[in-house]
Amino acid sequence: MTNSNAMPVEPSVLALAERQLGLISDRQLDELGIDRRRWVRAVANQQWLDLSGRVWLRSGAPCSGLTCGRAVVLHCGAGSAVSHHSAAALWGIPGFRLWPLQVSVPRTSWGGTDRIELSLPRNFVDDQRAIDHRVLVHRPTAWPDRATGMIDGVDVVRPALLLLQLAPVVAPKRLQRILDHLWSRGLLSGPSVAAELAPMLGRGRAGVVAIRTMLDRCGPGYVPPESNLEARLIDLIDAAGIPRPLRQKDLGDNVRWLGRVDLYWPQWLLVVEVDSDRYHGALSDREDDAKRQRALEAAGYTVVRVTEFELWHRRDQVIDRLRSAVAAARAHVAA
Q: What is the DSSP letter of 203?
């Protein structure tokens, strides 16, 4: 509850805070010409809650992880953005959490410490139930021209830069899954990553080799997996030592379109389909799958089906089946 002796706050401050999740920074107060002595009294009267010594939250405004992300960006100033694991969480990448909250700002723009202490208000709501509410500041020496975007009112590093930040700390296969996840959502592509990070990929910083290797491996015409099951199957194909196939390929005979298949090796006329429990478990689904398989085989294709259970629990058997299928398809084409 605000003090009965609360001082009126200029409409310009309220209007700006309204656009910033109820937040205002010291720099913005100066830009608006707010008298600091009056502001100190407003804070003392609990009209505004001090979050970091440089950023305040309007009393009564909700406070969440997003609010804290925006507060940290305001604290660090222009050019800063939520980054690393925290940015991955905001972009909706599975397996990442917002806290501890990480922020990046170009080294030339920030002269503060590498840690910020947030004073979380009583009404703070942490949907992730984190136990570590630290704030970590990263100060990169290189910063691409298009470094930041915005999610729900919070400045966040763009997906391409996020990949470079995560590359030194995640395994190559997980980095590939992150790329595929963002690519399948239309947030980036291999060419867009190469273009955005071009000024940084030639330098000997951590993560550059992993990014360049991943992009080279994708190559032109790469299509990201449409599901975790497809990504798992690609991992098994790699383990089997089989060249990577085309993905989500439309096939037909001389007369008609027969459908889009999950994986296809044109050199062997080999098709592999992934049968998920969700989309291929019903009797009608199995009947449709069988009908399409007969049509593909009649057109000269070799078809192999792999179930969701087999992918996760019969790894070695799937690898053996893939190798056998390649050998049989190769012999069939050569005959």
A: S
Same domain for 169 and 86? yes
Q: Does residue 237 sit in the same domain as residue 282?
A: yes
* Rounded-to-integer distance, Cα 240 and Cα 316, Å: 9
- Structurally, the chain folds into a number of domains equal to 2
Q: Which structural domain range is residue 202 located in?
A: 60-218
Q: How close are the terminal C-alpha atoms of the chain, in Å?
A: 85
Kindly report the pTM of this predicted structure: 0.75
> How confident is the prediction along the chain (335 residues), in pLDDT tens digits per residue?
444 455 567 889 999 999 999 999 999 999 999 888 888 888 888 889 999 999 999 999 999 999 999 999 999 998 899 999 999 999 999 999 999 999 999 876 655 666 788 999 888 887 767 778 899 999 988 888 789 999 999 999 999 999 999 999 999 989 999 999 999 889 999 999 999 998 888 766 778 999 999 999 888 888 888 777 888 898 899 999 999 898 888 998 878 888 889 999 999 999 999 887 765 445 456 677 788 899 999 998 999 999 989 998 999 999 999 999 999 988 888 87
Residues 156 and 245 in one domain: no
